[in-house]
Amino acid sequence: RGMRHDIVNRKRQRFLTALDVGSSKISCLIVKPAAAPDWLEGKGDSVHFEVLGVGHQRAEGVKSGMIAHLDRAEHAIRAAVDEAERMAGVTVDDVIVSVTSGRLKSESFSASVAIANGAVRDDDILRILAGGRQYAGRDKRSVLHALPIGYRLDDTIGIRDPLGMCGERLGIDIHAVTADEVAIRNIMLCIERCHLGVASLVAAPYASALAVLSSDEAKLGAACIDFGAGTTTLSVFADGHCIHTDAIALGGNFITTDIAHALAAPLQHAERLKTLHGSAFATPSDEREIITYPSVGDASQRTLNHIAKAQLTAIIRPRIEHILDLMRRRLASSGHAAEMARALVLTGGASQLTGLSDLASNMFGRPTRLGRPRQINGMPEGASAPGFAAAMGVLMQWASGDDRIGARVEQRILGTGTGYIARVGDWLRTNF
Question: 3-state class of 210 per DSSP?
Fold first, then answer.
């Protein structure tokens, strides 16, 4: 805990940069950490932030959270970071990046190890977490997180922090989040082409939940669904810990495309119809309310088409139900996580569709609300919308210290030259 306190104090002296590479927009937040989110269990000092700079640009070269065109994506990332840098008056060296692509996979497993000195040392915990990261990445997948969700000492379960406690054998339950290595490499390559370092990678569903869940929701059990433009992500928290994550390559852009196809309308007008008039439910008055829009290819836009608002809802509703049903099935297949998710919180840009929370509540059979990211000092009003949840959550994840170990620390611990790497292979086979 003393080591963690020193790290926090050291990092308070500098600024942090969060980068969310989304399918519709790229967001950059530059903040200054200051003393005192305090609801993740056993994390010592918590941190709050003062916003120094905000930048956001329309995403180019990104499809469903994946890099589809390096040059365009690089240009968009540079523009977002430059905008935030000018506002903050600083130069960014490295960024913490939220990740939605790469077929995110969630896995929970347990391991145990004999305690050599009779009392648990920080080295014991770091080694078992490093082994957990190696085990999670066994199929050539990039490990984004190896999160401890519970400890055991001999026959005693439910231990929050075993450091310094006595026992003969330490057990740990780990939740790991992994992604396809190629997708992660391309995101890192694109960011490094902008002359930026990648300080760490954070799974976007985990980050979004940190930004919008309340303390009680996280402890009692809740699922967070982030409706983005190209992806929809799911995470489940219980007892203050992230216990499940998932993502699908469907989002709000698909609703826009459905409208454009059905009405033969330009994409920008289809997006406008969705945001201004779109709804998940039709009301009796919607039959009488008429909306106008131009046709594709009508450059002068003199000829306007007409549609009743109820017809627009009939186009939108099937796609929304399809996405919600997919997420409901994904949640149901998660087993224990589904039982723990007693409430549902919706966030992300596409979550603002009228009537979405009521439809989700009906389909999931759980109380549902719309979640906005927590307010932090200096945040412009426009950047406090649900679409900025992942970027905000990246900062919350840093503050929580929930990831005890990252890839660089893992290499240092396992690559000591003492023969530990050879032994960890046997230990993994025995203990996981």
Answer: helix
